[in-house]
């Protein structure tokens, strides 16, 4: 399903031993009942060897409204946990934290339901939730870093609430999701194990909320796109029809990404380098790229027909790129000729520190930058450092407004990537 296809909407309605999630509201909620609040006393851990002794399916529900394109939608938000269990044995595997939004008065048999998850591996789903498609979003002010945390939380007119119920679910070892003994978090830190336990969460959500007849969509970002490919297959085998899959920032084969595999051709990154140079006004095509999409279309053609072959020749023989190729690289990106000559197969890490001397560019968003040596640049990615603090501080407050509170710290990013087992389909990565 293409990213521009029909918009989606809300999910949830969970009580004891039923589905749970959470949601956010909108403007004037006068007359709307207060949340059915829930204090969760459990202390959750993201450590690889951590596990819960047992888990309950408890959560908070609350009522909200949101205006999208002149229409006001009333919805229920649910925040809490569901237990994924092995479909063959019935044994509990993991307690998943999720926030769900369901449109009030809609027919659950015909209304779509979309499951959202970010990537990492090891990332919670805060970014798609409060940064993209939930009923509320945080205003970061990007690419400026002048907006201090906490970021303002506002109604999200770009939410997919008008076309689908929404379930934002955190991977095991992120957010407040944790394995249940005898499993540990790391039990599920691998391509196949991760997809299998997500399958079991979806099965539980569908059963707990009587959504068997609903069209079901998957929405994954970054590693979440890899998860989606395996998860869609697992769900189909389990008897759950998948109506569509949305891939955002897709990476379906880590072996083809030069940001991961050093020896791989960086052709795919060149258009991003050119867009970055254009953003900072450093590229020098003639004429200047007033029409950026057309400019980047030309860069893609050059990347495939000029740059990629030169990189392959350089790898095989050590012969430098022809002068014309180097000239075009400088003109399209603004990166100095000496840098291209020294490292023709330019990886994103070096590019982000070489493009503007003394400045570090963001990895997730190259428009965000910081002086080298500054606190914002210390972690190597100013964009991630800037956003993380704002999201981390906003989430507990937002969840409390939905009626869900806990003494635990919401884990935006665990160290799962350090333990991840990438083997799948006979490939080691």
Molecular structure report:
The protein is of the alpha/beta class. 28% of the residues lie in helices and 18% in strands. The strands form four sheets. Strands 2, 3, 4, 5, 8, 9, 10 and 11 form an eight-stranded mixed sheet that branches. Strand 10, helix 3 and strand 11 form a beta-alpha-beta unit.
Task: Summarize the entry for a quick read.
This protein is an alpha/beta fold. The chain has nine helices and 14 strands.
Mean pLDDT: 89
Radius of gyration: 23 Å
Uncertain segments: 1-30
Query: What form results from the Cα inertia axes?
Result: globular
Number of helices: 9
Give me some keywords for this one:
429 residues, alpha/beta, eight-stranded mixed sheet, two-stranded parallel sheet, 9 helices, 14 strands
Topology:
Blueprint lengths: L37 E2 L19 E10 L2 E15 L6 E12 L9 E5 L8 H8 L2 E3 L14 E3 L9 E5 L8 E2 L11 H18 L7 E6 L1 H15 L6 E5 L21 H10 L12 H26 L5 H11 L3 H6 L5 H7 L4 E3 L7 E3 L10 H20 L2 E2 L24
Parallel strand pairs: 1-14, 5-8, 5-10, 10-11
Antiparallel strand pairs: 2-3, 3-4, 4-8, 4-9, 6-7, 12-13
């Amino acid at each position: 399903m293409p990213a521009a296809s029909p918009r989606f909407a809300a999910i949830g309605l969970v009580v004891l031993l039923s589905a749970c999630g959470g949601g956010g509201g909108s403007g004037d909620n006068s007359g709307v009942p207060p949340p059915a609040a829930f204090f969760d006393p459990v202390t959750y851990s993201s450590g690889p060897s951590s596990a819960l002794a047992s888990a309950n399916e408890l959560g908070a529900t609350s009522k909200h409204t949101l205006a999208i394109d002149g229409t006001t939608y009333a919805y229920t938000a649910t925040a809490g946990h569901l237990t994924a269990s092995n479909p063959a044995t019935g044994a509990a595997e993991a307690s998943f934290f999720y926030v769900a939004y369901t449109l009030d008065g809609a027919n659950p048999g015909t209304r779509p339901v979309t499951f959202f998850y970010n990537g990492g591996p090891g990332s919670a789903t805060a970014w798609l939730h409060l940064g993209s498609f939930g009923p509320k979003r945080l205003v970061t002010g990007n690419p400026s870093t002048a907006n201090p945390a906490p970021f303002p939380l506002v109604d999200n007119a770009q939410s997919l609430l008008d076309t689908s119920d929404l379930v934002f679910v955190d991977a095991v070892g992120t957010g407040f999701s944790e394995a249940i003994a005898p499993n540990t978090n790391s039990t599920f830190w691998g391509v196949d194990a991760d997809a299998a336990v997500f399958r079991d969460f979806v099965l539980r959500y569908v059963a707990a909320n009587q959504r068997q007849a609903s069209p079901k969509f998957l929405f994954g970002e970054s590693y979440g796109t890899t998860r989606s490919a395996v998860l869609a297959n697992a769900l189909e085998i389990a008897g759950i029809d998948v109506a569509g899959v949305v891939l955002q920032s897709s990476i379906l084969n880590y072996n083809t990404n030069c940001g991961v595999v050093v020896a791989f051709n960086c052709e795919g990154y060149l258009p991003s380098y050119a867009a970055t140079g254009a953003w900072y006004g450093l590229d020098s095509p003639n004429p200047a790229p007033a029409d950026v999409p057309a400019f980047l279309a030309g860069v893609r053609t050059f990347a495939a027909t000029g740059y990629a072959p030169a990189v392959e020749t350089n790898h095989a023989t050590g012969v430098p790129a022809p002068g014309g190729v180097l000239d075009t690289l400088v003109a399209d990106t603004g990166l100095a000729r000496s840098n291209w000559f020294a490292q023709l197969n330019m990886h994103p890490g070096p590019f982000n520190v070489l493009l503007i001397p003394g400045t570090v560019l963001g990895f997730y968003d190259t428009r965000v930058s910081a002086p080298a040596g500054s606190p914002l640049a210390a972690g190597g990615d100013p964009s991630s450092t800037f956003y993380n603090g704002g999201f981390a501080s906003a989430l507990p407050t937002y969840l409390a407004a939905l009626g869900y509170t806990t003494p635990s710290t919401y884990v935006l990013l665990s160290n799962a990537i350090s333990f991840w087992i990438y083997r799948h389909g006979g490939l080691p990565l």
